[in-house]
Write a structure and sequence with these properties.
The complex is a heterodimer.
Chain A lengths: L8 H20 L3 E7 L14 E11 L3 E8 H12 L3 H7 L1 H24 L5 E3 L3 E6 L9 E10 L2 E10 L3
Antiparallel strand pairs in A: 1-6, 2-3, 2-4, 2-5, 3-7, 6-7
Chain B lengths: L2 E6 L3 H10 L5 E6 L2 H11 L3 E4 L8 H10 L8 E5 L4 H11 L2 E4 L4 H9 L21 E6 L3 H10 L5 E6 L2 H10 L4 E5 L6 H11 L8 E6 L3 H10 L3 E5 L3 H11 L9 E4 L2 E5 L6 H20 L4 E5 L8 H17 L2 E5 L2 H7 L14 H9 L8 H6 L1
Parallel strand pairs in B: 1-2, 1-3, 3-4, 4-5, 6-7, 6-8, 8-9, 9-10, 12-13, 13-14
Antiparallel strand pairs in B: 11-12
Helix pairs in contact in B: 1-5, 2-3, 11-12
Classes of the chains: A alpha+beta, B alpha/beta.
């Protein structure tokens, strides 16, 4: 069985960048640019969960490799993205409520993680997606256990930032 | 018959996107949020195509697909996978169970419509299915022509219509235009380099959004071979250069199946007005006569009993115009309608030269005609009826 040790940091980064760019371009007609990699251990570097009010989509993948990706969007960008996807005005989206935004962000996360893991599948790491879930709030933090690796990337989409947090189980 | 599309996805967002993608097509979208609901929906509604996700709670898409294909009553329903599960091995495994197509998320709505359009004959939804479009409604006409003078001539010639004429010089621009807009008709020059007109025709015919759009070929009159080629492959009509704008307008109206009766018939303050065009060509007279009986019957049903035959724009009174007018007068007489002719001095003079029309008298304006009809014993009517009887 292939192990994640066989995949370099650069491959993870380019795979994630491709996934984000593909989803933003196709579904939101937006250009996404890789901004930086966040090293949570580095003093002064901001962890994704420490910034303002957030909506976070989560989808996992299980199989030859197991992992989880969190997609962080600020609430304003999440609402704008949901409105675009659903073809709704701001008023219509407000009437539809948080559930509509949650579902839309869940689907964007599903597509992003799908595009990410499909590239890994084509490299021989077969895995399946899990059902999306959503976290909402501000000033919260997600702490990985010591048995996972963590890679966090920032992307710029127009005036907004998207952060992806990739957590993968170290080989069983 | 409206086609039915069943979308099976646990994401309401995806189901809304699917509904949005097909909102301009004549089809119903049925929703299910997992495989169990999907199977029940398929059995109850017998959809024409199923769009199926893989990762769903309760029952996933692979299980639903397997059960669907094992059911003799449902196995023939075409399934298109619409899923984020797109690894090569997954796709091959699912394809083996039996799917018509496979769309990996993220996806564009156009791709979805295109793939579904290959399975069912999607037809654009008419905005108003009851009332036919008329010449008073706006329409978008795309002209693909690399000679700006021709585009300008069409724009100038049709500026009296509510139609928007959009000119482009290349097929790339035309395709781009068709992606963003839905033209009501496309006029393409058959003289574009590299047989581009025929390439564009093929693209228009295979695109779900435009496959029912009429396409005219623009060509110099003497290029017979190209005209034949265009007719053979199915161009709606050929328009020859130099352009005959009234002829082009008539062809466009016909191709778009427009109600053109307003060109000839109006109701003005309880008076039914039949207006002869400036030039009474055989095609325009035929068009007018098509509407004559139903429009007059409509007027009578509305309680109208006065008719003005307005010839003041007519440039020449010839046999074609006279035959049409005699038919209209005959109908007035049969229906017992009071009627008056309005004409210009030229027409009044020419009417003296024909046996059937020499007794006709004319009011010089619509106002004078209305005044005449208002009097108990109209002085300007009846004569033509006697002449035509």
């Amino acid at each position: 069985m292939p192990t994640i040790d066989g995949i370099s940091d650069m491959v993870f980064r380019t795979t994630m960048t491709h996934a984000i760019q593909e989803v933003m371009r196709t579904m939101l007609n937006q250009r996404a640019d890789f901004h930086s990699e966040i090293d949570a251990r580095k003093p002064g570097d901001t962890t994704p969960e420490s910034t303002g009010s957030q909506i976070v989509g989560t989808v996992g993948f299980v199989g030859d490799i197991d992992g989880l990706i969190y997609l962080y969007l600020d609430t304003e960008f999440a609402a704008a993205s949901a409105a675009h996807l659903l073809g709704m005005t701001d008023d219509e989206l407000e009437q539809a409520g948080d559930e509509a935004i949650n579902d839309a962000i869940g689907e964007l996360t599903n597509m992003t993680v799908g595009t990410f893991k499909n590239q890994l599948c084509d490299r021989g790491y077969h895995c399946k997606l899990t059902i999306p879930s959503i976290l909402r709030g501000s000033n919260f933090s997600i702490e990985p256990t010591s048995s996972v690796t963590r890679r966090t990337y920032r992307f710029e989409v127009g005036n907004h930032r998207i952060v992806t947090d990739l957590l993968m189980k170290i080989d069983r | 018959m409206r086609y039915k599309i069943l979308t099976v996805d646990d994401s309401k967002t995806v189901r809304i996107i699917v509904k949005k993608a097909f909102r301009t097509f004549d089809c119903d979208i049925i929703e299910a949020s997992n495989g169990v609901e999907g199977l029940a929906g398929a059995a109850k509604e017998r959809p024409d195509v199923i769009l199926l996700d893989v990762t769903m709670p309760v029952m996933d898409g692979v299980e639903m697909l397997t059960k669907l294909k094992a059911d003799p009553a449902l196995r023939s329903i075409p399934v298109i996978m619409l899923t984020a599960e797109g690894g090569r091995e997954s796709v091959i495994k699912i394809a083996r169970i039996g799917v018509r197509d496979y769309i990996v998320k993220p996806f564009r709505e156009e791709v979805l419509v295109d793939k579904v359009g290959r399975v069912i004959d999607l037809k654009p939804l008419s905005e108003n299915p009851v009332k036919a479009k008329s010449i008073l409604d706006s329409a978008t006409i795309l002209v693909v022509e690399d000679k700006p003078a021709i585009v300008q001539q069409i724009q100038d010639g049709l500026k009296h219509t509510p139609w928007k004429i959009h000119g482009v010089a290349t097929i790339n621009e035309a395709v781009d235009f068709c992606t963003r807009n839905q033209p009501d008709i496309v006029l393409v020059s058959l003289s574009l380099p590299d047989d581009a007109a025929f390439t564009l025709f093929g693209l228009i015919c295979t695109n779900v959004k435009t496959k029912y759009t009429p396409v005219f070929g623009l060509v110099v009159k003497t290029e017979i071979q190209v005209q034949q080629q265009a007719q053979q492959i199915g161009f709606t009509s050929i328009v020859t250069k130099p352009l005959d704008i009234p002829d082009l307008e008539a062809k466009i109206s016909k191709a778009m199946n427009l109600d053109t009766s307003q060109r000839y018939f109006t109701t003005d303050q309880e008076v039914f007005v039949i207006k002869m065009p400036e030039i009474a060509s055989q095609s325009s007279v035929n068009e007018m006569l098509t509407y004559l009986k139903p429009k007059m019957a409509e007027a009578v049903d509305a309680g109208i009993c006065k008719v003005i035959l307005d010839l003041h724009e007519l440039k020449r009174l010839d046999v074609i115009a006279i035959k049409a007018l005699l038919q209209a007068l005959q109908l007035c007489r049969e229906l017992g309608l009071q009627h008056v002719l309005v004409g210009n001095p030229q027409i009044a003079s020419e009417s003296q030269g024909f046996e059937d029309t020499k007794s006709w008298t004319f009011a010089s304006s619509l106002e004078e005609a209305k005044g005449s009809l208002a009097r108990p014993s109209p002085s300007l009517s009846a004569q033509p009826v006697a002449a035509g009887a």
